[in-house]
Design a protein that fits this description.
single chain, alpha+beta, BirA Bifunctional Protein, domain 2, eight-stranded mixed β-sheet, three-stranded antiparallel β-sheet, aa-tRNA-synth_II/BPL/LPL, ligase, ligase activity
Length: 224
């Protein structure tokens, strides 16, 4: 039996029946409370999701992606050896010591930036074990156990992710957007070709022949 994670108040643990993303979408569609944390078995890689109940249009609540990213970096940074570098991509990619180790993704019922979605999900997939026997088959990919994180356990990391994410959710909701920007900008690794940075809503600013264009976080939202 998969142990139940210990979560902060207002968060509720829900064990996945099948793929985590399917359970999370089903729970969200059924009207589960915001703060529902869906988690999978703790024997392999870490797969989890947080269901949010937005109160603002998608253009604003999509900031849940960098919030959850900073929370994950803070959590893993506290549990992993100090020499392990944990960085983030604008699109939710998680880098450990420069290698791709997992990803955070946004899922919602629609992609209209001006509408308040009924729900929003941030999923987390993080590799603990290398894929296959040939570690050199995908040199740009890695796993926690291949990067000296053998002491990191899945359940404590899940619990820490939720706790640290809650800290940044509270700061965001208290108007500390600049603090979130500073923290995230110190962690970002890969913005992509031509990227100049981000604007106040974390839209990626890209240099083009015509000037500068903004790619919003809402472009990352995937629908079921």
């Amino acid at each position: 039996m998969t142990p139940t994670p210990s979560l902060p108040p207002l968060f509720t643990a829900l064990a996945a029946e099948g793929p985590v993303v399917d359970t999370a979408i089903g729970a969200a569609r059924a009207g589960c409370d915001g703060g529902t944390v869906v988690y999978g078995p703790t024997g392999g890689d870490l797969s989890a999701a947080i269901v949010f109940a937005p109160e603002e249009p998608l253009a604003g609540c999509a900031l849940a992606l960098p919030v959850c990213g900073v929370g994950l970096q803070n959590a893993l940074g506290a549990l992993a050896p100090p020499e392990v570098a944990v960085e983030l991509g604008w699109d939710g990619t998680i880098f450990v010591n420069g290698g791709r180790c997992g990803a955070l993704k946004l899922i919602g019922p629609a992609t209209d930036a001006d509408l308040v979605p009924d729900w929003l999900i941030v999923t987390l997939d993080l590799a603990f074990l290398p894929e296959g026997d040939d570690a050199g088959a995908a040199p740009d990919r890695t796993a926690l156990y291949a990067e000296g994180c053998g002491e990191v356990e899945r359940l404590p990391l899940l619990e820490a992710w939720v706790r640290h994410t809650l800290v940044w959710l509270n700061r965001w909701q208290d108007g500390e957007l600049r603090a979130l920007h500073r923290e995230w900008e110190g962690l970002v690794r890969d913005m992509g070709d031509g990227a100049l940075g981000v604007d106040e809503r974390f839209s990626k600013l890209v240099k083009t022949d015509a000037g500068t264009s903004a790619v919003p976080l809402t472009s990352l939202v995937r629908t079921p």
